[in-house]
Description:
This protein is of the alpha+beta class. The chain folds into three domains: 19-40 and 75-191, Thiol Ester Dehydrase, Chain A (Roll); 196-225; 233-355, no CATH class. The chain contains eight helices and 14 strands. Strands 1, 2, 3, 4, 5 and 6 form a six-stranded antiparallel sheet that branches. A five-stranded antiparallel sheet has the order 12-11-10-13-14. It has a three-stranded antiparallel sheet with strand order 8-7-9. β13 (336-343) and β14 form a beta hairpin. The protein starts with 18 loop residues before the first helix and ends in a 7-residue tail after the last strand. The structure holds zinc ion.
Amino acid sequence: MTAPSLGPSPTPSPALATPERLASFEGRPVGPPTLGPDAVNQPMIRHWVEAMGDENPVYVDEDAARGAGFSGVVAPATMLQAWVMRGYRASMEAERLRAQGPPEGPIDAYEELFSLLDHDGFTSVVATDCQQSYARPVVPGDRLAVTSVIETVSAMKRTALGDGHFVTTRMDYTDQHGAEVATMRFRILRFRPRAPAAAEAAAEAAAEAAATEAAATEAAATEGRRPLRPRPAITQDNAFFFEGARQGRLLIQRCRSCGVLRHPPRPACPECRSLECDSVESSGRGAVFSFVVVHHPQVPSFEYPLPVAVIELEEGTRLVADLVGVAPSDVHIGMAVVADMVTLDDELTLPMFRPAPRSGGA
Ligand code: ZN
């Protein structure tokens, strides 16, 4: 068996990701079991809950934990993966080895599966969901290990992002006695990115009339066109925001009981817990509260270096947005900005921010 070629192939032939081939990955382990570098411990829990702003005392106070029905302090369920993470140094070492080229010897089940999917054009990836179930709480003293198995690879599904396969990985967490502690299922979609409608039309026109100058011009226009931006996850809570954006309006969620504004959108008011809300339109004026300039990792739908800022609107709420119309080196905290509703494609309009024009004229 020869290793399939890596990378996207616009006209794969013949297809490698056949249903039988994909099904053969189900049940295959992904690498050897991983042992957590440290036992579950109170200092790491304390740092975690403080960073998360989680004030539930069952994570740090023995008496409170017993009062809540536990035998003692428990680790937050959301820390499950943290106990088996390989850490910064090992991650950097893995990056260094990857940069040296493909490893010698057999490739693991993931690499093999993703090579097949890459070959057939399913080159994009998005994490779709993660489910955890617990046999018992994780407690200080536990030494966790995890084994990962490719549980299912779906038949090809049509999704809003494009056609693709859902790949579910099951991670079984055990303690130092080999007893089950928790199971996590992590699902991704490997999909074939949809070309923008205009680019498809231009490509078809180019194919039909390649000899004509007009077609050549269109083809040139198609070349270098960026893939579509990733789609936001639209929920019943945030749909108004994106719908407003399509109408060129930057909206902020407002509690109908107490009037407090909040962003990002969520179901309940953090002040009065009311579930009733509407929205107000922002002036679009604000200031850079904080920012980063992204260089890596690069996603083909974006231009780099990419300045991304937390904008504090004059209404008081903050949002994360791209900065446009400014050199990355000129961005600074406190810089006055105004919103620009940028239509990226037929479906997606997003607020971006540019430096505010100086007021007063002179
Ligand atoms: Zn309220």
